[in-house]
Design a protein that fits this description.
Low-confidence stretches: 264-381, 384-406
CATH superfamily of the largest domain: Class I glutamine amidotransferase (GATase) domain
Strand content: 15-25%
Number of helices: 26
Protein name: Aldehyde dehydrogenase family protein
Pfam family, one: Aldedh
Structural class: alpha/beta
Distance between the termini: 63 Å
GO molecular function, one term: hydrolase activity
InterPro entries: Ald_DH/histidinol_DH, Ald_DH_C, Ald_DH_CS_GLU, Ald_DH_N, Aldehyde_DH_dom, Class_I_gatase-like, Peptidase_C26
Keywords: Oxidoreductase
Largest sheet: 9 strands, mixed
Number of domains: 3
């Protein structure tokens, strides 16, 4: 098992002639409760020794520990030396430990520079604050008249008071909002909050800062209380989620290769972690049913409208979306797609009960007053996986329908889009969807495996064909409802009567939007020989005009590749095509310069189906353009694939387009457009592009199980 390794800063016993044990030595130690707290989540605590002193030799540095470990916890102990924040001790006993201060400041700076999470406890909060330019009260009782007794030597960790977790704080995403009971064993406290930090919690009676968080950079947070003094039987808040938030796997930002922490399985922002609490989801069944009925049980239409009223519209969603910037900065955001589709505003109009369509279709038989096909019953529990590609859109394909049917739905967010999954879940909870109904799981394959082992009524997945196969094999023997949205190698045919410029501009967008990282992006283009050259010229000119750069910039069109290994896939496909005859590389074909996962938009001509680039999914800004003689050849090539997600035709002749598209093996077809979805139309795939469907009234049936009632009055 690959366990996280969490560094713990050491406490110091300096040489002391009156000490019985090793009076001339410097002793380093950690509190057992802190180590056990870290171990309680399966992580390995590692005490980090001092990195200077008379006995220190070698070149090991704080940066070396930051690279080797997964995070840092700084626990309590001696006072912070007032000189660290530019003051002199008001009393001799408040002198603090200058040596430990310098040691811990070096650790904080090293771990934050490495992109590793840093979490401070009690003294750790105070040290972090002064390390970044804040100040402290040397003694709260002396310098803040009227303050609570924050330290009672006789009571020690049985000294309690209330704390308010601020409503808009990140801490409120980890712990229940509002007022809570905490322990208090400190006499120093924050006076001036360091620049770049925000207050997350306060003592309501005296305004003493109880929690802080760094903004706009590395994950650094701290609390003034001791979460390792775990005393839930005394009504103290359960601080386990704080540890889970600290236990993050750092990942590199695709656009810069800077490291940011990413939630790990069991992050406190998730509601259930099946690998740890296999019964947790089942225990929520009764509560979820009751709360779901209260929210949505009045009638299908009423319940749906209640959900819709809480869902964020485009204008109202921005504050929540801004808090998901960790993912948005990493790759081209799917904001434009969400706006075009107008998901939240349209979702309730598609649900049964909004119009008579759904009821008529599900009640086809009314004969002899005793035979009736009654309304479909929702599958009670469904597990789903949120892919890394357009996570907002993918989530909204499923969630409104599932929630409206009162399903309990654990979501496993892709480990590459975890923050977006968590943020969408938070917005749904704020909209009124009960936490028991909608939960978010964080992690990679092991979390998905654990989720599949649950007693779910359905499994819904968006991702690769290989993973989809494994999921189908895992649940096949259980006969649960299965919906898989997998990959594609989507073709488009441009007929000789099409406008080459208009078609080129549309298909360039379809091929390069979101840097080609869309399952329904255009990856194969077949152009009639009569307009081939004109089309290619316009296509290349259009793609040349796309700016590559910072995905948060308004004028950027081409962003970074989300996953670094995909760069090798693109390189391999381009090299294979060139070896097999696609010598005319009209654009791109190489990785971008500098840090980050950059790949230049690439256009290949003289391609054929012996080349991998025309057979296997690219999932990047690479497209092949092949010349064809007629409609028959184009149709044969379009169907020469194991995938079948979308396909399109460009021609002014509607009858011709319908004739061609009727014979294309694809779940969605386009006439004079591409790479788009509609909430009113079903979304499905053929062949290796998946099974089942989402969207529209047909897609809603994915989340239901019909039940026939034969009734006759006695």
């Amino acid at each position: 098992m690959d366990r996280l390794k969490i560094g713990i800063s050491a406490c110091f016993f300096h040489p002391d002639g009156e000490r019985k044990a090793a009076p001339s030595k410097t002793l380093l130690w950690i509190e057992q409760s802190t180590a056990h707290w870290v171990m309680s989540e399966g992580a390995l605590p590692v005490m980090i020794p001092s990195l200077n002193g008379k006995t220190f030799r070698g070149e090991v540095s704080a940066a070396d520990y930051a690279q080797a470990l997964d995070g840092l916890v700084m626990h309590g102990g001696a006072d912070v030396w007032p000189g660290t924040y530019g003051e002199k001790p008001l009393r001799p006993e408040w002198h603090g430990d200058r040596v430990r201060d310098e040691y811990e400041v070096a650790l904080v700076k090293a771990f934050s520079a490495a992109g590793k999470p840093v979490f401070g406890i009690c003294r750790g909060l105070q040290l972090i604050n002064v390390a970044y330019g804040g100040t402290l009260y040397q003694d709260i009782t002396t310098q803040k008249p009227g303050a609570l007794v924050h330290r009672d030597a006789a009571m020690y960790d049985l000294n309690f008071h209330d704390v308010d977790i601020l409503a808009d704080s990140r801490l409120a995403q980890l712990l229940p909002r509002g007022r809570h009971k905490i322990n208090s064993v400190h006499h120093q406290g924050i006076k001036d909050v360091a620049p770049g930090f925000v207050v997350e919690a306060l003592s309501p009676e005296d305004g003493v800062v109880e929690a802080i968080r760094h903004t706009g950079g590395p994950w650094i947070a701290a609390v003034q209380w001791h979460p390792e003094f775990h005393r839930p039987e005394l009504g103290v808040i359960d601080d386990t989620p704080l540890l889970r938030a600290t236990s993050c796997r750092p990942r590199a930002k695709p656009a810069s290769h800077e490291h940011t922490p990413h939630p790990r399985p069991g992050d406190g922002r998730t509601d259930h972690h099946p690998a740890r609490r296999r019964r947790g989801f089942g225990r929520a069944q009764g509560a979820g049913r009751a709360r779901g009925a209260a929210l949505l049980g009045r009638s299908p239409a009423g319940g749906t409208q209640a959900l819709h009223r809480g869902l964020p519209r485009r204008g109202r969603a921005r504050p929540g979306a801004a808090r998901a910037r960790d993912d948005a900065r990493d790759r081209q955001a799917d904001q434009d797609v969400a706006q075009r589709a107008q998901w939240p505003a349209a979702a309730h109009r598609l649900l049964p009960g909004r119009s008579g369509e759904g009821d008529r279709r599900r009640n086809p038989v009314r004969r002899r007053r005793h035979a009736r096909a009654d309304r479909a019953r929702a599958a009670r529990r469904g597990g789903q996986h949120l892919g890394l590609e357009l996570p907002l859109v993918r989530r909204l394909q499923r969630d409104p329908a599932g929630a409206a049917h009162r399903q309990r739905r654990p979501l496993q967010a892709s480990e590459y889009a975890a923050m977006t999954g968590l943020e969408i879940t938070r917005l749904l909870h704020e909209a009124g969807v009960p936490r028991e109904v909608m939960a978010c799981l964080v992690g990679a394959g092991e979390v998905g495996t654990a989720l599949l082992a649950q007693a779910v009524d359905g499994v819904f997945f968006t991702g690769s064909h290989a993973t989809g196969q494994r999921i189908a094999e895992a649940v096949g023997k259980r006969f649960v409802k299965l919906q898989l949205e997998l990959g594609g190698k989507d073709p488009t045919y441009v007929c000789e009567d099409a406008d080459p410029k208009a078609a080129a501009e549309s298909l360039a967008d379809g091929a390069m939007y979101n840097t080609g990282q869309s399952c329904c992006s255009v990856e194969r283009i077949y152009v009639h020989e009569k307009i081939h050259d004109a089309f290619v010229a316009h296509f290349v000119q259009t793609v040349r005009g796309y700016k590559m750069g910072d995905p948060m910039s308004e004028d950027t069109y081409i962003g970074a590749i989300t996953r670094a290994p995909q760069l090798e896939v693109l390189d391999r496909q381009v090299a294979d095509a060139q070896r097999k005859g696609a010598a005319d590389l009209l654009l791109g074909g190489r990785k971008g310069q500098g840090p980050g996962n950059w790949y230049e938009p690439t256009v290949l001509v003289n391609v054929n189906h012996e080349m991998e680039v025309m057979r296997e999914e690219s999932f990047g800004p690479v497209v092949g353009i092949q010349k064809v003689r007629d409609d028959h050849e184009a149709l044969e090539l379009m169907n020469d694939t194991r995938y079948g997600l979308t396909a399109g035709v460009f021609t002014p002749d509607e009858e011709r387009a319908r004739s061609i598209l009727a014979h294309v093996r694809a779940g969605t077809v386009y006439w004079n457009c591409c790479d788009r979805v509609s909430p009113r139309l079903p979304w499905s795939g053929v062949g290796d592009s998946g099974v089942g469907l989402t969207l529209s009234t047909y897609g809603i049936q994915t989340f239901t199980r019909p039940k026939a009632w034969h009734l006759r009055k006695a």
